Amino acid sequence: MFEHIERVPGDAILGLIEAFKKDTNPQKVDLGVGVYRDSKGNTPVMRAVKEAEARLLKNESTKTYIGSHGAPAYSDVVLPMVLGSDSPVLAAKRASATQSPGGTGALRLAADFIAAQLPGKGIWVSDPTWPNHHGIFTSAGIELHKYPYVDADNRLDFSGMLAALKKIPEGDVVVLHACCHNPTGFDLSQEQWQEVLGVLRERKLLPLVDFAYQGFGEGLDEDAYGVRLLAEKLDEVIITSSCSKNFGIYCERTGCLIMVAKDVEQMENVRSQVAIVARENYSNPPAHGGAIVSEILGDAELTAMWREELTEMRDRINTLRRDFVDALKPYGLDQKYACVAEQRGMFSYTGLTPEQVDRLRDEFGIYMVRSGRANVAGFSHENLPYLAKAIAAVND
Ligand code: LMR
């Protein structure tokens, strides 16, 4: 039965984890998968998470199922985090959260919901986007299209994006990255979000906002500007939120699908359908990550501790962005890579070609996605001189 099955290459991002582990170069640098790293290259458990886990261990009294929508305590803290504590959308009970196995699980729920409830509608993703968007939406049977996002000079192509959005057929779904665009790091300004809102409204398009990096760009509320704007001004919005990065709980698979509908009645109808999608995929989400998040956000002291640590992570990344460009000055390459200091979030679309990325890996043990996407959190003050030298060598 299996004779005809062909072997396929592994995932382009996750495959880098294994390749990096195997490399024996003592100077190797991991700029691959999107996890935060401290100055020693470690991905530590946040202090607030450790404390929350200690409390959970002490107080947990059952491991029973938490239901297809997940724990209500998780929705109660995540909805205000995403939509704002004073959100009119929440006051009108127009939003519902369904806990999911990570942001990827939320995207999968969204994809299956769209395929089942909005048959025939296409989905539009930025070019480039997180490669897994392609797989998730096409495997759900949705027709995938692209709109431009970066130009030939590796800059945000906002006019190209807007012009393309204006031609999308009515009722199609448009995937937008709330902040920290993956893979480019180019984010929309508030004015640009307003323009996007105008087009979505005019063309009657349904936004699906992928919000995987809240707090890694400018701040928890600042990063939510576009999400909150669309949720408040439009009748219907789909949001996929992740706590993997901002709580550093990657392996706990903690995210949620937020469905915003016109009114409470429609929201409950939609919510009932999402429960079926969750049930058919995995039944109930894993509980532990959501419990950590609700423990932290339900306690003022832990919340303050977590916010402080998140700010430290964001500030570190933004400092490293500037220091990376400075490290390239002696090689006359600072202008060429100046975009790295302007981009936001964990990733930078560096403009390095796939051939240059291959040389960095083979000659210097520096690992990044072949598209030229670098995880900026993998930079450190120790490895920046080495990185700069290597980048200069592959630019020769
Ligand atoms: C990434 O883009 O590196 C992360 O979102 C991890 C993943 O699952 O690809």
UniProtKB/TrEMBL annotation:
<dbReference type="InterPro" id="IPR015422">
    <property type="entry name" value="PyrdxlP-dep_Trfase_small"/>
</dbReference>
<dbReference type="GO" id="GO:0033585">
    <property type="term" value="P:L-phenylalanine biosynthetic process from chorismate via phenylpyruvate"/>
</dbReference>
<dbReference type="GO" id="GO:0004838">
    <property type="term" value="F:L-tyrosine-2-oxoglutarate transaminase activity"/>
</dbReference>
<dbReference type="GO" id="GO:0005829">
    <property type="term" value="C:cytosol"/>
</dbReference>
<dbReference type="InterPro" id="IPR015421">
    <property type="entry name" value="PyrdxlP-dep_Trfase_major"/>
</dbReference>
<comment type="similarity">
    <text>Belongs to the class-I pyridoxal-phosphate-dependent aminotransferase family.</text>
</comment>
<dbReference type="GO" id="GO:0004069">
    <property type="term" value="F:L-aspartate:2-oxoglutarate aminotransferase activity"/>
</dbReference>
<protein>
    <submittedName>
        <fullName>Aspartate/tyrosine/aromatic aminotransferase</fullName>
    </submittedName>
</protein>
<dbReference type="GO" id="GO:0030170">
    <property type="term" value="F:pyridoxal phosphate binding"/>
</dbReference>
<dbReference type="InterPro" id="IPR004839">
    <property type="entry name" value="Aminotransferase_I/II_large"/>
</dbReference>
<dbReference type="InterPro" id="IPR015424">
    <property type="entry name" value="PyrdxlP-dep_Trfase"/>
</dbReference>
<keyword id="KW-0032">Aminotransferase</keyword>
<feature type="domain" description="Aminotransferase class I/classII large">
    <location>
        <begin position="27"/>
        <end position="391"/>
    </location>
</feature>
<keyword id="KW-0663">Pyridoxal phosphate</keyword>
<keyword id="KW-0808">Transferase</keyword>
<dbReference type="InterPro" id="IPR000796">
    <property type="entry name" value="Asp_trans"/>
</dbReference>
<dbReference type="Pfam" id="PF00155">
    <property type="entry name" value="Aminotran_1_2"/>
</dbReference>
<dbReference type="GO" id="GO:0042802">
    <property type="term" value="F:identical protein binding"/>
</dbReference>
<comment type="subunit">
    <text>Homodimer.</text>
</comment>
